[in-house]
Write a structure and sequence with these properties.
Two copies of one chain form a homodimer. Chain A contains 25 helices and 30 strands. By secondary structure, chain A is an alpha+beta fold. The two termini of chain A are 25 Å apart. Chain A has a nine-stranded mixed beta sheet. A five-stranded mixed beta sheet of chain A has the order 27-26-28-29-30, sandwiched between helices.
C-alpha cells in the first residue's frame, strides 16, 4: 500500500468551547519504507506480510531541501522572537495581535514550501476506503432513505462492534487499571448548568443567513471559499491575490467586526443563490429543548460529558472517602449543532466522547505512577517549536516534564498513557504527535494543553485533548449554586485562625421576616468576613444594617443578629482541586484507525482490507467450510458453539463463493483469523487450517485446540509467531485455494 | 431478610407508543420459606448463607382462602365469558366497552379480597434500600446541586459498573450467541421518520394546565388522586364513594371527552393552587429540537431505538447477503418527556434501551433453535387467565406454542431467552411472569405481545416487552419514502405472471415538462397495475391522461408514454418481513435487580447488602490489609497488579476501619469476594483469606493462586462450593475479626 498525504491542509480541532480554533499547521514528511515490524505490536509474522507500507516521517533526510528551507525557518523564528519580546514587554494587545498574524503568514509560507519540496510518489485513495466502509456497512449516513441529515452517521454491525471493542479496551486501560470512578450522567442538561460552564454565552460560531431563503453559512468557511476562488481566478490582480491569501491566513484570529468588514469589502453574497447575506450572527452550537410539559424549563443536549462529572464532584469525593487525588471518567454521547458539518466522522453533530477528569491538589501535581512511563517517547510539537519554524521532536516524557516543557507530572502521565493506548489499538506511531496549544489559542482557564493529533488525509486531526483546566469548572459551579465544591487537605501543622461570624437570632428574624427569614439566615451563614466586620461596625454605630440577600434588602437590627469573634484551631484546609482532563473523540479516533490500517494486497490492487489489531477487530474469527458439502456442517456447527463458549466473536460464512473470495470478504471487515474446514478435517484426528489476515500465513491445528488458540490470539495472550512455531505450516497457496 | 409486597398496586407499563396502558392487575401470594438453593445459580455454599428469604409464590396453598375466593373468581369468569360472547357476536362497540369495564370492576373486587386474605408478616423496607443506593452512589438525582430535575438520574461508579456489566452480559447472551447484527444509530431523528412511525401523531399523554401559573398535571394521575382523596373522606356518601371507585377503575379506558366530563362533574381544580384548570390537552412525549442553524429542520430525540434499525433495513439485509431470517440489535438511550415522572428509575425522561428486531418470513415463524429451549418453563399470565380470574401458570414454552397460547416459535424462543437472561443476571424467578396483552391494549399492528414483568414494591413492573409487530414498521417507512423495504424469497416453483408497465418516452417528456420530467418518470415507474390499465384505456380512448405525481397534475399524451404488456417468469417473490421485537428497559431491569437482591444480615438488621451475581456485580473483589501495618503494603500492591492482569475489577480498601466494618462496606456495594492480607500472609508459603459475600464463608488460598481463582469465580467457571472443597476453611469468625 502506498499512501500520500496532501499535506495538512487543515488542522481539525475538537476543542473545548473556549478554545475552538482552526489553526493551520503544516509539516514536512520524507518517505521511508518502514518495516512492518516496527508497527505491529501483536506479533503476527511480520516478514510474511504481503503489504509494504510507506510512512512519512519527521526526519529531514535531505540536506539540499533543508538548505532551501533554512531562510524561511529563520524568518519564522525572527517573527516568533518578536512576538515573545512584545509579550514580555507588555506591548499593547493590538501590536501583539498584528505580530501574531504576521507570524502565521510566515509559518504558512514555510509550510507551503515544505509541501512543494516533499516527494509525493505514494497515494492514499480515500474514495476507495470510503467505498469499502460504506459497502460493508462500517458506517453510513443516518436516515438515508429519508434523504439523510448531514453530520449524522449510523454505525453498522462492523463499525458498531469496532466501537464497542475500542470502548471496552478504553475502559480496561484507563478505568480498571487506574481504578477510576466511572459515571453515566444525563444528556439533557438544564440551562443554569451550562450557563455556569460558559457554554450558553460562549459556545458559538459565527454565521450569515441568505436574506431571501434563510439558508445559513458558517462565516469563516464562506469567506475562505470566496477568497480562494477569487485567488484562483486568472483575472485577479496580484495585489488582490496576496490580500486574499493574507486574509485567509488571518481568518481564525479575526473578530466578528473584522469578518463583517471583509464581507462588505468583497461584496460576498450567497454562493448558492446570489442573494444578499445578513450581518454575522453568533450561533450557539448547542441543541435546545424544553424539559417537562410547561415549556418553562429550558434545557440543552450536553455539548461535552465533562460537566456531568463536575456537578457530581461532591458525591464522587465522598465515594472516594474524601481523599485526593482521584479520577472520574465518563463514556457517552454529546451533541453540537454544527452549522455546516463535513469531513465524514470528523465533524459531526452527534458523537461519542470518553472523558477523564483527574482531581488533584493544585500545589502537588506529581503522579504516583509517573516513574512507570518516564521513558516513554512522544512526538512533541511544542508551542515554542511552532513559533520557531521547527518540527515536532521525539522526547521522553520524563525529560519533557523535568525541563518544564510539559507543565506537570499528572499532565505528562496522561499524555504518555494516551500515547500508549492509541498505539495499542492500532494508531500508527509515526502519524501521531502531541501539539501544544499556543498562548493565543488556549482557553483562558487552562495552564497547559496538548492535543494528540493523528495524521489523516484531512491533515492533522485532533483526536484527544489533554488539558490542565486548573480549578475553573468547580469554581464556576460553586459560584452558581452556592455549594462549595472543594476538598479538605490535612495540614502538616495545626493552624490557629481568628473567626468572625454572625450569630442570627432565629426567633426574632422569623417574626420580622416570616417566610423570608430562612433566606436571610442562609445568606448570613455564607457571609464573607469583611462584610461581617462591616455589619458589626454598622450595628454598633447605627444600631442597624441593610443586608442584601437573594436580590432583596433587609434591615437587620441588634436584636436580630449578634457578632461572634473567637479563635479556631484548623487541622485541615479547604482546597479547590485542579483538574487534568484527557478527552477522547471516539469517532475521530475510529476514523484515524481506518486510515492508518487501510491496506491493499501487493499482488492485487482490488483487494483492500483493514489490518486492525485483534483486540479491537469487529469479529475475531471466521469459520469457512471449503464447500457446501453436507459432511462439513457438523464440524462448522461444533466449532461455532465452541468459539461462543470461549467468548470469541465470529462469523460463519457458508456461502457459495470460492475460499479465496470468502477470505477476501473477511479481510475487508478486518477479521484477523480464519478457520477453514476441509476434507482433511473429516479424517481423524480432526483438524482445520487457521489463517492470519495480514501475512495470509496458514497452519494446521487439531479441532479441539482451535477455539482456545483463537481466544488466546484474540486476547493477545499469544502471538501468531508462536502459533506458527508450534503447529505445522499449511502449504497450500491462497491462489490455489482461490481456484 | 423478610419482604412484603404491598401488593401490586400498579402495573407499570413500558409500552410501545400505541399501547401505553396502565392496567391494574393484582395477584395473590402466599409465603413460603425458600431454600436459597433454589435461587442461586452461581454455586455459593447456600446452606451457610446467613440470610433467609421469604418469597411469595403463586401457589394457593390454603383451601380455606380458596373457598372464600371461589364465588369472586366465578363472577370474573362469568363477565369474561360475556365479553367473549359479545365480541364473537359482533355486538356494538359501546356494549363491549361497558362489559369490559364491568369485568375490570369484578377483577378488582377479587384482587382486593385476595390482598385482604394474604399474610403480611414480611416487610420490605424500600426507604432502607433507597438510602443504601444513594449513600453508596449507585445512582442519584441529576444536577442535584442545581435543584435537580425530576425523572433524570446519574449513575455513580457502582451503578455505572453494574449497568456496563449488564449490557456486556446482554451483548454476549443475545448478540454474540445469536450472531445478531448490532447497530448504533443517531439519537436526533428528523420529523418525517417519526411521522411515519406514528410517534408524531399518537405518542401523547393527556394533561391539564393550571390557568394561572401554567403548571401541568397528567390528567389520569390528577383524577385518580382527587377521587381517591374524596373516597377516603368520611363525609362522602356511599353512593359517591362507589362512583369514585368505579371511575378510577375505568380511567385507563376513558377517552379525552369522558375524562373532561369527570373533571367538570367533580369540579376538579389544581391541587397545588386551587386555580381553575384548562381543558385536557394532548401532550406529545417527544423532546423536540431544531437540527442545523436555519431552524427549518425539525427533529426529535428518539423515543425508542427501534426506528434506527428499521430505517437501516436495506443495508442490514444486504449485509446478511439478502437472507432471512436475521436479527438486528441496538443498545442506546431514548427520551420521553414525561409529564410527571415518578417511581425512581421506573418512569424517567432519559433511559437506556436494548432492543432486538428479528426479521422473518411472515409465512414461516418457526425458529431453528426452538428445540433447545422447548422445555423451559415460564410463568405465563395469559389474556384468557386474566379474563377468567385465574393466576399465572407455569408452562413449558414448547407446550405454550403447540397449544397456540403463544403465537409462534420465534416469539416463544425470545420469551424463553428473555427469561433465561433475566434469571442469569439475578432476577428472582418467583417474581417474574410474562403477561399477555389483552385484545383492548394491544397495539393495532401487533399479532401477539407478552411483557416480562418483575414484581417490585411498586407492583408488577414491565421490564421487557416482547411483541410480534408484523410488517407494520417496514410498511410505514416504505410508504413514506417510496423505498421498498422488502426481501426476496426463492419460489419453490417458478411462477409466470402477466406484467403491465408504462414505457415512458424520455425525450418527449423532457421537452414537455423540463425539470419536472424526472418526477413524472419516477412516478410512472412506481405506478400500480390497476392505474396503468386505466391509463392505457384513457390514452386509447381520449388520446391523453391526467397523471398526478408529487401533488401536481400532468397531461400525458400517446407520444409521451406507451403501455407494454408481457409475461415474466418469477424465481423469487418479494415479501415484507414480519418483526418480532424484544425490548429491554435497562433501568427497570436494574431497579428490579436491586429489589430482588436487597438483603439484611439475620444477626444485624443494620447490615444491608446486595446479593448480585458475580457476573454483573460492579466490582468482583476487594483487597483488604488487616491493618495499616507497612509490611502488608507490598502484598496488597502485588495482588492488585495481578488481579488487573487477569482483568478482575477490584477495590483496595486500606482505610482504618475494622475488618468487619470494611467487609460490611464491600457487601453494601455487592462485591462478591474479599481477600484479606493478614500476619499469616507474611509467612512462607504466602497465603491470604478469601471470603464469599452471601455465605460469609472463608478459605485460605496461596497468594499466587488467588488471582486466577477469583477470575474463575467471577466468570462463573468455578463455584464457591468447589473452592471450599479444594482449600482449607478459614475458621476465624467474622464477629471475632470485627473486634
Amino acid at each position: 500500500m502506498k499512501q500520500f498525504f496532501p499535506i495538512l491542509q487543515v488542522l481539525v480541532s475538537f476543542s473545548k468551547p473556549h478554545a475552538v480554533f482552526h489553526q493551520k499547521v503544516r509539516s514536512i514528511f520524507t518517505e521511508k519504507t518502514f518495516l512492518y515490524q516496527a508497527k505491529n505490536p501483536w506479533g503476527t509474522k511480520k516478514k510474511h506480510r504481503s503489504v509494504k507500507l510507506n510512512f512519512p516521517t519527521y526526519t529531514m533526510a535531505d540536506p539540499k531541501i533543508e538548505e532551501i528551507l533554512a531562510p524561511l525557518r529563520a524568518a519564522v523564528k525572527e517573527q516568533g522572537d518578536l512576538v515573545r519580546s512584545l509579550k514580555s514587554n507588555g506591548a499593547p494587545e493590538l501590536d501583539v495581535k498584528k505580530a501574531v498574524a504576521e507570524l502565521k503568514v510566515r509559518k504558512k509560507t514555510l509550510e507551503d514550501k515544505e509541501i512543494s519540496l516533499a516527494p509525493s510518489s505514494a497515494t492514499f485513495d480515500r474514495s476507495k476506503m470510503e467505498d469499502l466502509l460504506k459497502r460493508r456497512f462500517f458506517f453510513d449516513q443516518s436516515f438515508a432513505i429519508y434523504g439523510g441529515i448531514t453530520g449524522q452517521y449510523d454505525f453498522g454491525p462492523m463499525g458498531c462492534a469496532l466501537k464497542a471493542n475500542i470502548l471496552n479496551a478504553w475502559r480496561k486501560f484507563f478505568i480498571l487499571e487506574e481504578q477510576m470512578l466511572e459515571v453515566d450522567c444525563s444528556i439533557l442538561t438544564p440551562e443554569p448548568v451550562l450557563k455556569a460552564s460558559g457554554h450558553v454565552d460562549r459556545f458559538a460560531d459565527l454565521m450569515v443567513k441568505d436574506m431571501v431563503n434563510g439558508e445559513c453559512f458558517r462565516l469563516d468557511h464562506l469567506i475562505k471559499a470566496h477568497l480562494e476562488k477569487l485567488s484562483a481566478d486568472k483575472k485577479t490582480s496580484n495585489a488582490t491575490r496576496e490580500e486574499c491569501q493574507d486574509i485567509v491566513v488571518r481568518l481564525d484570529g479575526m473578530t466578528k467586526d473584522e469578518m463583517s468588514a471583509v464581507l462588505a469589502k468583497y461584496s460576498i453574497v450567497s454562493p448558492m443563490t446570489g442573494n444578499k447575506l445578513s450581518e454575522p450572527i453568533e450561533f450557539n452550537l448547542m441543541f435546545g429543548t424544553q424539559i417537562g410539559p410547561s415549556g418553562l424549563v429550558k434545557g440543552f443536549l450536553r455539548p461535552e460529558t465533562a460537566q456531568g462529572i463536575f456537578v457530581n464532584f461532591k458525591r464522587l469525593l465522598e465515594f472516594n472517602q474524601g481523599k485526593l487525588p482521584f479520577a472520574a471518567a465518563q463514556i457517552g454521547n454529546a451533541f453540537r449543532n454544527e452549522i455546516s458539518p463535513r469531513s465524514g466522522l470528523i465533524r459531526v453533530r452527534e458523537f461519542t466522547m470518553a472523558e477523564i477528569e483527574h482531581f488533584c491538589d493544585p500545589s502537588d501535581k506529581d503522579h504516583p505512577k509517573f516513574e512507570s512511563i518516564r521513558d516513554t517517547k512522544l512526538q512533541l510539537y511544542s508551542a515554542c517549536n511552532q513559533m520557531d519554524g521547527k518540527s515536532a521532536v521525539a522526547v521522553a516524557i520524563g525529560d519533557a516534564v523535568d525541563q518544564g516543557l510539559v507543565a506537570n507530572q499528572t499532565l505528562g502521565y496522561y499524555m504518555a498513557r494516551i500515547h500508549l493506548f492509541l498505539i495499542k489499538i492500532g494508531i500508527d506511531p509515526v502519524k501521531l504527535r502531541f501539539r501544544q496549544h499556543m498562548g493565543n489559542e488556549m482557553a483562558h482557564y487552562a495552564c497547559d494543553c496538548w492535543d494528540a493529533e493523528c495524521l489523516t488525509s484531512y491533515g492533522w486531526v485532533e483526536c484527544v485533548g489533554c488539558a490542565d483546566r486548573s480549578a475553573y469548572d468547580l469554581t464556576q459551579h460553586s459560584k452558581a449554586t452556592g455549594v462549595r465544591l472543594a476538598a479538605e487537605k490535612k495540614l502538616d501543622e495545626l493552624k490557629v485562625v481568628d473567626v468572625i461570624e454572625p450569630a442570627p437570632n432565629k426567633g426574632v428574624l422569623g417574626k420580622a421576616f416570616r417566610k423570608e427569614a430562612k433566606v436571610v439566615i442562609e445568606a448570613l451563614e455564607r457571609l464573607e468576613p469583611e462584610k461581617v466586620e462591616k455589619m458589626e461596625k454598622n450595628l454598633a454605630e447605627k444600631g442597624s444594617y441593610i443586608f442584601s440577600a437573594n436580590g432583596s434588602d433587609y434591615e437587620l437590627t441588634k436584636d436580630m443578629v449578634s457578632i461572634k469573634r473567637y479563635q479556631k484551631t484548623l487541622h485541615v484546609e479547604e482546597i479547590v482541586p485542579s483538574v487534568v482532563e484527557p478527552s477522547f473523540g471516539v469517532g475521530r479516533v475510529m476514523y484515524a484507525l481506518f486510515e492508518h490500517n487501510f491496506c491493499t494486497r501487493e499482488d492485487d490492487e482490488q483487494r483492500t482490507f483493514f489490518s486492525l489489531p485483534p483486540v479491537i477487530a469487529p469479529l475475531k474469527c471466521s469459520v469457512l467450510p471449503l464447500s457446501n458439502n453436507a459432511q462439513f456442517h457438523p464440524f462448522v456447527k461444533k466449532l461455532s458453539e465452541d468459539l461462543t463458549r470461549v467468548d470469541v466473536s465470529h462469523k460463519v460464512d457458508d456461502s457459495s463463493g470460492s475460499i479465496g473470495r470468502r477470505y477476501a470478504r473477511t479481510d475487508e471487515v478486518a477479521i484477523p483469523f480464519g478457520i477453514t474446514v476441509d476434507f482433511d478435517s473429516l479424517k481423524e484426528p480432526h483438524s482445520a487450517t487457521l489463517r492470519e489476515r495480514d501475512s495470509t500465513g496458514q497452519v494446521r491445528i487439531p479441532l479441539d485446540e482451535l477455539p482456545s488458540v483463537v481466544r488466546d490470539l484474540s486476547n493477545e495472550k499469544t502471538t501468531w509467531i508462536e502459533i506458527e512455531k508450534k503447529y505445522p505450516k499449511f502449504e497450500q497457496q491462497e491462489s490455489v485455494a482461490k481456484a
